[in-house]
Amino acid sequence: MRRLLPVALMIASLATPGVAAADDELRDILLDAATADFHGDGIVLCNWDGDSAAATYDVTRSGGMSMVHGPGGDVLVSGALTAVQSGADWYGLEVGEWSAWSLSDRYTVSAPQPTVRLGRPASIVTVSENGRPRARLIIDDESTIPLVTEILDGDGTLFRLAALIDFEPGAVLDMPEMPPLHSQTMVMPTAEPGSLPAEAAGYRRADTYAGPDETIQAFYTDGLFSFSIFESERGERPEAFDDATRFEVEGETYRRLVTPSHVWVHWQAPNRSYLLVGDLPPDHIEQVLTELPEPGNRGLFVRMWRRLFG
Amino acid sequence: MTEDSVPSWEQVARDHGRTIYNFAYRLTGNSDDAKDLAQEVLLRVRRGLATYTPGSFEGWLWRITRNAFLDEVRRRKRRPTVPLADDDRSHAGAAPPPEEVLADVRLSDDVQAALLRLPYEFREAVVMCDVVGLSYDEIAAAVEIPVGTVRSRIHRGRKMLREMLS
Amino acid sequence: MSHLGELLSAHLDDEVTPEERTRIEAHLAGCSECSRELEDLDAARSAIRTLPLLDPPRGLVPRPAARAPWLRRRWVAAAGAIAAGALAVGLVTAPGERGPVFDMDTIADQHTARQVVDPGISTIRGPLGGP
What we know:
Number of helices of chain C: 6
Order of helices and strands of chain B: HHHHHHH
Order of helices and strands of chain C: HHHHEHH
Radius of gyration of chain B: 17 Å
Number of helices of chain B: 7
Low-confidence stretches of chain B: 77-101
Strand content of chain B: under 5%
Structural class of chain C: mainly alpha
CATH class of the largest domain in chain B: Mainly Alpha
Oligomer: heterotrimer
Helix content of chain C: 55-70%
Largest sheet of chain B: none
Shape of chain C: elongated
Number of domains of chain B: 2
Largest sheet of chain C: none
Structural class of chain B: mainly alpha
Mean pLDDT of chain C: 72
Radius of gyration of chain C: 31 Å
CATH topology of the largest domain in chain B: Rna Polymerase Sigma Factor, Chain: A
Shape of chain B: globular
CATH architecture of the largest domain in chain B: Orthogonal Bundle
Number of strands of chain C: 1
Strand content of chain C: under 5%
């Protein structure tokens, strides 16, 4: 993370002419929150129309490395290298190249209101999107770490809540080192975005990578939230979605899974399968889906075959 | 190799194939990937030789090598590298005593592992300087960045390596 | 923070101008901090320089393909005929769907790996993996 900060600031300062400037205050808040050292135990809850999930986790960030112990296992992050534990082994995934971070100008942040949280002086800030509240952060004054993060759906209801219930700012002395990796893969951006648009509902397609097993991964971000779309030749729906909630957007049906920190959406198109995973709120998801390739059955050819031969 | 002649592809492959392979190996840590990547690079070099005009051969060769390497990494299906332990064996020369081999391999493994933890642009600069043996100007020409950036990346890469290896 | 910084690495690689070299050597004579850093950098530099230069596996240098051009043209023409024949005859096998194409775990990892290089709401909570 130490390496990211100067580059991001440098590039962010070369703003595209003619584009409204992003909220500097919010940008600083996010940058500080991404780099400060701390240790915390927390809970995350997510709810989308009755589909909900919750988890506890603990996170340590120190000396440029982050370690998260969560329900999905342990994750270590050091710069652009992410290591995930599976069984006894650690696997590394390195992002070789990525486009610079920039914050959408649709977000603005309110003036901070003083408060106390976990016995510490803190500030409440509201992040608004085009004037309407989208997120609330309670930020520890001393360390700049958000102790509470609330994400709201478009109608103002709570979508996700993350709260630290035990918190200690500052570097940790006995931070473990990056363990030996069983394997390390590097991904570099590819030139083929497939049929995925360069922009969708205020999110820009920042990078496209070769995904696992012949999928393409397109990573979209608006600077605050992000998601990846994985596109593949049409294939079987993952088992995890067999009992998933079905929902409709503009008459098309999708399936969704809710986990504490991300939402997953799956759909089949005539010759492709799609999987969306991200932390964006439901109204954004719905807007994004309307701008992505539509669901649909396999081609006419197949329907005729089935009609003729059962 | 004289600067005013166009070398034959066989000559280039003979003289530089090993270095190109080591370039790919030190960047990826995996001998299968390195071999595939080096092969792709050599093919690209072969095609490029048809239009090469005599000049700075090293600069030309390593610009092609580096671009071919990155294009291949971008294009190929993502697949994990294999464990490091079995790969780092030198095939050259008489077999050294077992204790020495073991110590060498373990030390090399640590260094290779540290290399792989460097951000890609630092790793690339360090490998080009200390494995391939290019000058700062040659690296600048190959990567198409200013010499000052080369110097900075090498310096920061070495500092990170030192921290990781101490 | 060192006084000579990047110049130290460049000095080790002999990539400095004569004026810079004079300045560096003069500084090093009186600065133990920079002398120590020079040693550290030299150690890191040597660690890479002394890595064994490996022999590539056999078969790295590919032999030129030995196919006669006329053979290739015939194959292409024949393939075209087969394709046309298949359309005329109609369906022979039922089109099937491929097996599962998304591995949720590796997908979660790959999204996380990219997500965490940016600041944003998610880095505040930390990555938590897939379902």
